[in-house]
Amino acid sequence: MDFFETILWPLRWLVELVLAVWHQVFTWVGLDPNSGVTWVLSILGLVVVVRAALVPVTVRQIKSQRRMMDLAPEMKKIQDKYKGKKDQFSREAMSRETMGLYKKHGTNPFASCLPILIQMPIFFSLFYVLRQASGAMGSGGNGSGQAGIGMMTQELTDSFNQAEIFGAPIKMTFTQGWEQGNWIVVVMLGLIMLLMIASQFFTQLQIMSKNVSDETKNSPMYRQQKIMLYIIPFAFLFSGVTFPLALNIYWFSSNLWTMGQQFIVIRSMPTPGSDAWRARQARLKAKGKLKEDEATPEEQAKLDQGQRQQPVSSKRAKKKKK
Questions:
Q1: Residue 106 lies in a domain
Q2: What spatial distance separates the first Cα and last Cα of the chain, rounded to whole Å?
Q3: Domain of 252?
Q4: CB 173 within 8 A of CB 244
Q5: 164 DSSP assignment
Q6: Which of 67, 70, 145, 209 is in Cβ range 3.0-4.6 Å of 157 for a Cys bridge?
Q7: Domain-embedded: residue 319
Q8: In a domain, 44, yes or no
Q9: Average pLDDT of the residues in 226-251
Q10: How far apart are CA 118 and CA 33, in angstroms?
Q11: Whole-structure pTM value
């Protein structure tokens, strides 16, 4: 057992438990325990459990990401203030002001990465579980599936190795499918790769186009993130080729969850001043549910102006009428 397997041991045990429970549930309802459908549904069940548990963290990440983009103009001012100054005093002062800005807005650069940082150990735990079950690790890598460290018994391991969906073994990778001439695996994984790239692109596009304020769109940080929008999704090409079909199904399903969750969050908690925020204001106004604290900037300015008017005495009111 290598170092990563050792530190991931508790998570591997939990992943095996969730998979085994879902597999048993679908077997109880009458599905074939050795069917690829049963195993795919068990993997989808794992996605539901993991992503549901991460909902509070994900909402916090979305809010943090929104704040990071909102403070981009202020960050640019700090950078311009110390531009060209490389002495230690200036660097420390810039660092203090930057941290003060993060504290003021209640965010930090790492908060937006928290969900993915939590999910990656779970993802690699599933990778080790499936890898051991398919016989790709352990005594000589002889292709004989081995029981896991917990609920993944030898019986379940053998069942997983038999599982196919549309004739594609779910334990097989793109490379294995190509080498063995299993074009169903090649086509399915190729399609999943394209769908993962598209879903990741669309998820990021939702934020960039709908949930960013007009001021932030003019900042350098926004332009940099817009470039990354076209680069990051292609990282899934690596996962599609390297990881087995079962693991890619997990990742793609998780992407779909993220896309749907992002849509709901943007619709219900949009960034003030963004297109999504204006659309929400229009919906509330049409339903007569627009509150004073949710008014448009123009309406809020009028309300504020009215609130600032000083009371006028009856004598001064009569003079004004004259």
A1: yes
A2: 94
A3: 3-85+94-272
A4: yes
A5: E
A6: 145
A7: no
A8: yes
A9: 76
A10: 30
A11: 0.73
